[in-house]
Automatic annotation (TrEMBL):
Family, per entry: Belongs to the membrane fusion protein (MFP) (TC 8.A.1) family.
Gene for this chain: mdtE_1
InterPro entries in the record: MdtA-like_BSH (IPR058625), MFP_Efflux_Pump (IPR050393)
Positions of the Multidrug resistance protein MdtA-like barrel-sandwich hybrid domain: 21-60
Subcellular location: Membrane
Pfam families according to UniProt: BSH_RND
Official protein name in the record: HlyD-family secretion protein
Principal subcellular localisation of the protein: membrane
Species name: Escherichia coli
Length: 80
């Protein structure tokens, strides 16, 4: 998921808004980009997949957390 920040919107007297043509984007997580699904200056829509970040570090962290949880549950069972 990528968060997109609108740089500016212009209000006009007709009570309409003109959307910015360029926006800056900031990913919610950092990581190595393994796939870029857009080209420079390509028009994109809300919900379009812009890029894919390597999920391996997150999978490893999840496995480590699961192992720690299993050990803690085992230690608790032994303590009872």
């Amino acid at each position: 998921m990528v968060a997109v920040e609108l740089l500016h919107a212009i209000s006009v007297d007709t009570r309409r808004k003109i959307r910015a043509e360029q926006v800056s984007i900031t990913p919610q997580v950092s990581g190595r980009i393994v796939e870029l699904n857009i080209k420079d200056n390509q028009l994109v829509n809300a919900g379009d997949l812009l890029l894919t970040i390597d999920k391996t570090p997150f999978q490893i962290a999840e496995l480590n957390a699961q192992a720690q949880l299993a050990k803690a549950q085992s230690d608790l069972a032994k303590a009872k």
